[in-house]
Amino acid sequence: MSGHSKWATIKRKKAANDAKRSNVFAKLLRAVEVAAREGGSGDPAANATLASAIEKARSFSVPVDAIERAVRRGTGEEAGAGRYDEVIYEGYAPGGIALIVRALTDNRNRTAQEVRHAFTRHGGNLGESGSTLWMFQRKGVIAIEKALAPPEERVLELALEAGAEDLRDAESTWEIVTAPQDLARVERALRAAGLAIDNAELTMLPTTTIPVDGAEARRVLQLIEALEELDDVQAVYANFDIPEDVMTSL
């Protein structure tokens, strides 16, 4: 099971009614704008990163017109674009859990200082470039709730027919794994086949995971939450394996 993917799903459902929604919206729109700029196209069909950013923004109920404006800012069709750089930080949480922190920033010094402070305050260690990135692979992940899905054999059949690479059991959901460039195409095919998609995004999947429970799980998630709450941080990826009921309770 991908601990990060399950954690992201839990956080997304919570954020739908979170008091910090405006901050969440700003982050998501920044990601859309940068994806349109860096991907060289405002067409999601030709820009997998943009398609994923738009899908994620929609899953948080970001208004469609705000998303469209962000795309136009990214392509230069509308004024007001910021100049953000993508920065990747690597490090470890308590228990030796590997972390990747993806940020979009207009001030590298400020962001580096905030990320370092979060690691130090919550018992983690900020590492050198390349220290944890090798433990992850960039993939597309489509989540489907088991309660709304057909039997496993049918889900696997539909996923493979659509061009997916793998089907993983994530307790209450199925995770369909795709190559990054195939995410949007596979998602469209699965929707056309009648599957109810809970979430679809480009992510970093760990090649191996480390089981964590109890007080250590709490410490790991506290560090990840502290990082996710930073204005410049877009995503945190981790290689923990924490039971779903534990994540939900924490």
What does this protein structure show overall?
Helices cover 44% and strands 24% of the residues. The chain has 9 helices and 10 strands. The model has no long low-confidence stretch (mean pLDDT 88).
Helix/strand layout:
Elements: H1 3-15, H2 21-38, H3 48-59, H4 64-75, E1 85-93, E2 97-105, H5 108-121, E3 125-126, E4 136-145, H6 152-162, E5 166-170, E6 173-178, H7 183-192, E7 199-206, E8 210-211, H8 214-228, E9 233-238, E10 240-241, H9 244-249
Parallel strand pairs: 8-10
Antiparallel strand pairs: 1-2, 1-3, 2-9, 4-6, 4-7, 5-6
Helix pairs in contact: 2-3, 2-4
What is the molecular shape? globular
Helical residue percent band: 40-55%
Which spans of ≥5 residues are poorly predicted at pLDDT below 50? none
Rg calc: 18 Å
Widest sheet: strand order? 3-1-2-9
Distance between the termini: 18 Å
Domain module tally: 3
Order of helices and strands: HHHHEEHEEHEEHEEHEEH
Instruction: Give the DSSP E fraction (strand runs of 2 or more residues).
Output: 15-25%
What's the β-strand tally? Answer: 10
| Secondary-structure arrangement, i.e. CATH architecture of the largest domain | 2-Layer Sandwich
CATH fold naming of the largest domain: Alpha-Beta Plaits
The secondary-structure class comes to alpha+beta
CATH level 4 superfamily of the largest domain: YebC, transcriptional regulation domain
CATH class of the largest domain: Alpha Beta
Provide mean pLDDT, rounded.
Answer: 88
